[in-house]
Amino acid sequence: MDLSVNFPLLLVVLTALCGGIWLLDIWLLSPRRVRADSKQDRQPAVVEYAASFFPVLLFVLVLRSFLVEPFQIPSGSMIPTLEVGDFILVNKYTYGLRLPVIGTKVVAIGEPERGDAMVFIPPHEEQYFIKRVVGLPGDRVRYQNKTLFINNVEQKQTFLNEIAGSRPGQLRFLEKLDERTHEIYRNVYQDARIQEWLVPDGHYFMMGDNRDQSSDSRYWGFVSEEKIVGRAFAVWLHKEPGLSLPNFSRNGWIE
């Protein structure tokens, strides 16, 4: 994603710093100024700025940490569901309330469901990723002939069309995970390999909808429950790469 994982830490530090300066002035510095000059209690500039920014930073911190957080899609691993340049909204409470920065769950609300588009931090690098939840804890996931089998049950794919002008040729399918459907891309090349994984407790198996152009659990393993960020639920803005204006052409819910 385009936002650094360190941004929540920066936001927490700035909020705590501004709040600390403001409280220090209320409890210690302001009474001293009043005793020194009973006619005037003028705040230093740094205190004025801290007092002004603190409520704004606190509001943003609470909003991002516990309610909704915005992200921008930087790569094509979730095409056709999400395009490069999509701005998405991520529900931060649907999987439980977590403390900012450390990610510890403090209130359990719900668990990821198969088919969710989920934002998380993968095991191999400190970056935000978004993929689709394919395997739940305890599932046996098999990928054979570019078709998913969950606990030996084939997840049906319905051919829609071939993408004109794509190189290599891309085929568009409607995939059904349990009772939920979404579109995926596959290239025209066959793959005779049979890959199989058993999802450990407390972990999830993730895959991109652009199946042959996605770095996901097939390559770097499972996602720990502790590394979950939230569920992506809507596209609210889109901007094409380069010098172009944002637009609302792709606004809608994420399947």
Structural description of this entry:
The protein has 255 residues and is of the alpha+beta class. It has two domains: 7-65; 73-253, Umud Fragment, subunit A. Helices cover 22% and strands 34% of the residues. The strands form four sheets. Strands 1, 2, 5, 6, 14, 15, 16 and 17 form an eight-stranded antiparallel sheet that branches. Strands 9-8-7-13 form a four-stranded antiparallel sheet, with no helix packed on it. Strands 10-11-12 form a three-stranded antiparallel sheet, with no helix packed on it. Helix 1 (7-36) packs antiparallel against helix 2. The radius of gyration is 23 Å and the shape is elongated. The mean pLDDT is 88.
Indicate the topology:
Layout: H1 7-36, H2 45-67, E1 68-72, E2 86-91, E3 97-98, E4 105-107, E5 117-120, E6 129-135, E7 140-144, E8 147-150, E9 153-154, E10 157-163, E11 170-177, E12 180-187, E13 194-198, E14 203-207, H3 217-220, E15 223-224, E16 228-238, E17 252-253
Antiparallel strand pairs: 1-2, 2-16, 3-4, 5-6, 5-16, 6-14, 7-8, 7-13, 8-9, 10-11, 11-12, 14-15, 16-17
Number of domains: 2
Overall number of strands: 17
Strand coverage percent:
25-35%
Distance between termini? 19 Å
Helix/strand-derived category reads: alpha+beta
Question: What keywords describe this structure?
Answer:
single chain, 255 residues, alpha+beta, Umud Fragment, subunit A, 8-stranded antiparallel β-sheet
In short:
The protein has 3 helices and 17 strands. The chain is of the alpha+beta class. The protein has 2 domains: 7-65; 73-253, Ribbon (Umud Fragment, subunit A).
